[in-house]
What we know:
Layout: E1 3-7, E2 11-15, E3 21-26, H1 31-42, H2 48-59, E4 64-67, H3 70-79, E5 84-87, H4 92-99, H5 101-107, H6 113-166, H7 171-175, H8 179-188, H9 197-204, H10 208-220, H11 228-262, H12 264-270, H13 272-282, H14 285-289, H15 293-297, H16 302-311, H17 325-328, H18 332-355, H19 361-381
Parallel strand pairs: 1-4, 4-5
Antiparallel strand pairs: 1-2, 2-3
Amino acid sequence: xxxxxxxxxxxxxxxxxxxxxxxxxxxxxxxxxxxxxxxxxxxxxxxxxxxxxxxxxxxxxxxxxxxxxxxxxxxxxxxxxxxxxxxxxxxxxxxxxxxxxxxxxxxxxxxxxxxxxxxxxxxxxxxxxxxxxxxxxxxxxxxxxxxxxxxxxxxxxxxxxxxxxxxxxxxxxxxxxxxxxxxxxxxxxxxxxxxxxxxxxxxxxxxxxxxxxxxxxxxxxxxxxxxxxxxxxxxxxxxxxxxxxxxxxxxxxxxxxxxxxxxxxxxxxxxxxxxxxxxxxxxxxxxxxxxxxxxxxxxxxxxxxxxxxxxxxxxxxxxxxxxxxxxxxxxxxxxxxxxxxxxxxxxxxxxxxxxxxxxxxxxxxxxxxxxxxxxxxxxxxxx
Length: 383
């Protein structure tokens, strides 16, 4: 005869083939504890109640058991060598608990089992959402890492192209600092002899004055001669770099979509790029939400902080949030105050995103802008 074992919010129960209750172990009447046990079961880890119940039945010479979880069966096989465990879905115990839960609860003196089960399910749902959010956090971290790799590789290639093309037209490197414009001029015009004012304006949309300067430099250039064969490989490399520009744009849009799902308040306050980088550096949204504003303010400047502590110098006033336009563009003496105000709102936004999911981003953004305006106003009044 097989003994059929299954679990519910009440505990772990064993029934025989005819549906007669053989033995059971009750769970504590604490929804948080029961939810934790349910998570363990889902992950394939037997609870203490499983082990106690099986041990008791084995001592009574029961050797054949069925359960509805493959992972539990695998674990129990390792722990109880003398018994046989099989998967059976559904088994008698599972069916009995699903069909007669209220009757069994009443027999055990357990009142309001529906309310208790609802509380357990609420905790389990919240745990599942947090777990899923943590998995989405990992996507943000990986995407930010990919973005950094794209930037590094792109910069390496652009520097190589600039040095390469400077053999032919060295003056262009100084006249065109923008990488994308520089590459467009190479791919659409090519040889410096073709750098007329009209061609430059059409290729990169530069102003008449800028086009005139470049055209004049091309006419007077002392660079070496290139022919179409020399230019072909250079143009191919430029096309690959344009592909990286496009990939970067796609990844940035993907990150923006992730942030809209996972951290809409953080996205509203500080933007997707900075918000995602803060999450990545912190190790996840939950970790970021537990950080005080003072830590968030210098997140990403750990090396500078370590150097300051080692040499007893001034600690950094900002880390990643320096990329925020109002911090980066502020007068130096105001950056610390604006960074503190921003970090405070980031801390609130991260906590709301991690805990409640309510959208208050527009309110936080408005409060931040008002605070920054106040800081600037006070500075203007100072003598």
